[in-house]
Amino acid sequence: MPSNSMNTLWHSLLDMNRKLNQTLCLLSSAEEVPPSAVALIFKLEHKESMKINKIAEVLGITIGAASNLIDKLEEKQWVERVRSEEDRRIMNVQLTKQGKEQLLHWRQQFSEHADVIFAQVPLEELDHFSERVVRLSQHLSDYNRRLESGRSRKDG
Length: 156
Known about the structure:
mainly alpha; 72% helix; 6 helices; single chain; three-stranded antiparallel beta sheet; Arc Repressor Mutant, subunit A
């Protein structure tokens, strides 16, 4: 059974996740796009392109919902669908120049909001907290990789 401090930490992390999602919702509403659109734009920053089914998987939505989301982002000219050169049946999604500009705009907005949010916290405390969060994040990533590895062995 987890200790009281682990339960407290777990609940605090879940609460922080909810609050971060709420902040993302508030910021994305200014652009009249759902938070999943913001999440996708940030995800595409680190990928040259993604298949629609992978986008659906990453965002935790159906392929149909992912396709509708991509339609909205194409209307804003933030993403484009590109046929795979290896397999013409596969459609990939990638950021456009306007999408990259929107990403930079959001980064600037998030940075400004972070300045306000964390202004009350001493810099030394922020540095200490940041180191801990990075370490926890790495532990969580390692754990998730082990879970995925075990799942793929069962599926294979």
